[in-house]
Amino acid sequence: MYIIVMGFQMIIKVVLELTIMVEEIIKELNSKLFVKGKTEIGSFMGRWMSREVDPEIGKKYVCELSLPDLSVEDMQILPDGAKSPVYTDIDLDSNVVFKGIIWTAEHGGIVVSFAPDWIECFEIRGSGLNAYDSVKFVLDKEEISIYPYDVA
Protein backbone atom coordinates (compact mmCIF):
# COMPACT_ATOMS: atom_id res chain seq x y z
CA MET A 1 0.00 0.00 0.00
CA TYR A 2 1.50 3.31 -1.05
CA ILE A 3 0.70 6.96 -1.03
CA ILE A 4 2.16 9.35 -3.55
CA VAL A 5 2.11 12.95 -2.49
CA MET A 6 3.01 15.75 -4.81
CA GLY A 7 3.49 19.11 -3.17
CA PHE A 8 3.71 22.75 -4.18
CA GLN A 9 4.23 25.29 -1.44
CA MET A 10 1.92 24.33 1.46
CA ILE A 11 -0.57 22.17 -0.49
CA ILE A 12 -0.30 18.41 -1.06
CA LYS A 13 -2.12 16.06 -3.43
CA VAL A 14 -2.65 12.56 -2.13
CA VAL A 15 -3.11 9.39 -4.17
CA LEU A 16 -3.34 6.08 -2.29
CA GLU A 17 -3.27 2.48 -3.42
CA LEU A 18 -4.89 -0.14 -1.21
CA THR A 19 -7.21 -3.14 -1.18
CA ILE A 20 -10.80 -2.66 -0.06
CA MET A 21 -13.20 -5.47 0.88
CA VAL A 22 -16.67 -4.08 0.15
CA GLU A 23 -19.14 -4.45 3.04
CA GLU A 24 -21.88 -2.03 2.00
CA ILE A 25 -22.97 -0.29 -1.21
CA ILE A 26 -24.87 2.98 -0.96
CA LYS A 27 -26.70 4.31 -4.01
CA GLU A 28 -27.86 7.90 -3.64
CA LEU A 29 -30.69 9.53 -5.57
CA ASN A 30 -28.26 11.72 -7.51
CA SER A 31 -26.69 8.57 -9.08
CA LYS A 32 -23.64 8.73 -6.82
CA LEU A 33 -22.40 5.34 -5.68
CA PHE A 34 -20.52 4.96 -2.39
CA VAL A 35 -18.86 1.90 -0.91
CA LYS A 36 -18.01 1.17 2.69
CA GLY A 37 -15.52 -1.52 3.55
CA LYS A 38 -12.38 -2.73 5.31
CA THR A 39 -8.76 -2.13 4.35
CA GLU A 40 -5.43 -3.12 5.93
CA ILE A 41 -5.61 0.06 7.99
CA GLY A 42 -9.25 0.02 9.05
CA SER A 43 -12.71 1.02 7.89
CA PHE A 44 -13.01 3.11 4.78
CA MET A 45 -15.68 4.82 2.71
CA GLY A 46 -15.71 6.80 -0.50
CA ARG A 47 -17.31 7.43 -3.88
CA TRP A 48 -17.00 4.54 -6.38
CA MET A 49 -15.79 6.13 -9.63
CA SER A 50 -15.75 3.16 -12.02
CA ARG A 51 -18.41 2.78 -14.69
CA GLU A 52 -16.85 -0.48 -15.91
CA VAL A 53 -16.65 -2.34 -12.58
CA ASP A 54 -19.70 -2.65 -10.35
CA PRO A 55 -18.84 -3.24 -6.68
CA GLU A 56 -20.03 -6.47 -5.06
CA ILE A 57 -20.41 -7.04 -1.33
CA GLY A 58 -17.77 -9.44 -0.01
CA LYS A 59 -15.35 -8.86 -2.92
CA LYS A 60 -11.89 -7.34 -2.56
CA TYR A 61 -10.73 -4.69 -5.01
CA VAL A 62 -7.29 -3.16 -5.51
CA CYS A 63 -8.03 0.53 -5.81
CA GLU A 64 -6.42 3.86 -6.31
CA LEU A 65 -7.89 6.49 -4.02
CA SER A 66 -7.76 10.17 -4.64
CA LEU A 67 -8.06 12.56 -1.72
CA PRO A 68 -8.48 16.32 -2.02
CA ASP A 69 -5.60 18.74 -1.74
CA LEU A 70 -4.57 18.92 1.89
CA SER A 71 -2.71 21.62 3.75
CA VAL A 72 -0.91 21.58 7.06
CA GLU A 73 -3.98 23.26 8.55
CA ASP A 74 -5.94 20.06 7.77
CA MET A 75 -3.67 18.08 10.10
CA GLN A 76 -4.68 18.08 13.75
CA ILE A 77 -1.81 17.38 16.13
CA LEU A 78 -3.04 15.05 18.84
CA PRO A 79 -1.98 15.69 22.46
CA ASP A 80 0.95 13.88 24.05
CA GLY A 81 -0.15 10.51 25.31
CA ALA A 82 -2.52 10.06 22.36
CA LYS A 83 0.04 7.98 20.53
CA SER A 84 -1.66 4.81 19.39
CA PRO A 85 -1.69 2.54 16.35
CA VAL A 86 -2.27 4.16 12.98
CA TYR A 87 -5.67 3.62 11.42
CA THR A 88 -8.62 4.88 9.45
CA ASP A 89 -12.17 4.76 10.74
CA ILE A 90 -15.63 6.05 9.86
CA ASP A 91 -17.37 8.41 12.28
CA LEU A 92 -21.12 8.81 12.86
CA ASP A 93 -21.40 11.39 10.05
CA SER A 94 -19.80 9.08 7.44
CA ASN A 95 -16.51 10.97 7.58
CA VAL A 96 -13.28 9.01 7.21
CA VAL A 97 -10.80 9.68 10.02
CA PHE A 98 -7.10 9.18 9.19
CA LYS A 99 -4.69 8.91 12.11
CA GLY A 100 -0.94 8.54 11.74
CA ILE A 101 2.47 9.31 13.17
CA ILE A 102 5.04 11.78 11.88
CA TRP A 103 8.20 9.73 11.46
CA THR A 104 10.44 12.59 10.43
CA ALA A 105 10.08 16.29 9.81
CA GLU A 106 13.40 17.53 8.51
CA HIS A 107 14.94 19.05 5.39
CA GLY A 108 11.60 20.66 4.54
CA GLY A 109 9.74 17.36 4.17
CA ILE A 110 7.44 15.30 6.33
CA VAL A 111 7.04 11.51 6.40
CA VAL A 112 3.78 10.24 7.89
CA SER A 113 2.88 6.59 8.49
CA PHE A 114 -0.71 5.36 8.47
CA ALA A 115 0.18 1.64 8.65
CA PRO A 116 3.26 -0.34 9.68
CA ASP A 117 4.40 -0.95 6.08
CA TRP A 118 2.86 2.15 4.51
CA ILE A 119 4.95 5.31 4.51
CA GLU A 120 3.87 8.53 2.86
CA CYS A 121 6.10 11.44 1.95
CA PHE A 122 4.48 14.82 2.39
CA GLU A 123 6.55 17.41 0.56
CA ILE A 124 5.65 20.42 2.69
CA ARG A 125 7.99 23.20 3.78
CA GLY A 126 7.72 25.10 7.05
CA SER A 127 4.80 23.07 8.32
CA GLY A 128 5.53 23.16 12.05
CA LEU A 129 4.95 19.43 12.52
CA ASN A 130 7.53 17.51 14.57
CA ALA A 131 8.85 13.96 14.40
CA TYR A 132 6.78 11.51 16.49
CA ASP A 133 3.72 13.78 16.63
CA SER A 134 0.45 11.90 16.30
CA VAL A 135 -1.75 13.58 13.72
CA LYS A 136 -5.18 13.10 12.25
CA PHE A 137 -7.32 14.56 9.53
CA VAL A 138 -10.96 13.96 8.64
CA LEU A 139 -12.52 13.81 5.17
CA ASP A 140 -16.15 13.58 4.10
CA LYS A 141 -17.00 10.49 2.02
CA GLU A 142 -17.71 12.88 -0.88
CA GLU A 143 -14.05 13.97 -0.85
CA ILE A 144 -12.65 10.46 -1.39
CA SER A 145 -12.73 9.01 -4.92
CA ILE A 146 -12.22 5.25 -5.35
CA TYR A 147 -10.92 3.96 -8.70
CA PRO A 148 -10.84 0.12 -8.77
CA TYR A 149 -8.40 -1.38 -11.26
CA ASP A 150 -8.11 -5.03 -10.19
CA VAL A 151 -9.91 -7.70 -8.19
CA ALA A 152 -7.81 -8.97 -5.27
Topology of this protein?
Blueprint: E1 2-8, E2 11-27, E3 33-39, E4 42-48, E5 60-71, E6 76-77, E7 87-90, E8 95-106, E9 109-115, E10 118-122, E11 134-140, E12 145-151
Parallel strand pairs: 4-12
Antiparallel strand pairs: 1-2, 2-3, 2-5, 3-4, 5-12, 6-11, 7-8, 8-9, 8-11, 9-10
Explain the overall architecture:
The protein has one domain. The chain has no helices and 12 strands. Strands 6, 7, 8, 9, 10 and 11 form a 6-stranded antiparallel beta sheet that branches. It has a 5-stranded mixed barrel with strand order 2-3-4-12-5. With 152 residues, it is mostly beta strands.
Tag the structure with descriptive keywords.
single chain; mainly beta; 5-stranded mixed barrel; 0% helix; elongated
Mean pLDDT: 76
Termini gap: 13 Å
Q: How many strands?
A: 12
List the helices and strands in order: EEEEEEEEEEEE
Estimate the helix proportion, in percent. Answer: under 10%
Give me the secondary-structure category.
Answer: mainly beta
Q: How would the global form be characterised?
A: elongated
Strand percentage lies at over 45%
Tally of separate domains: 1
Which spans have pLDDT < 50 for at least 5 consecutive residues? 1-12, 122-126
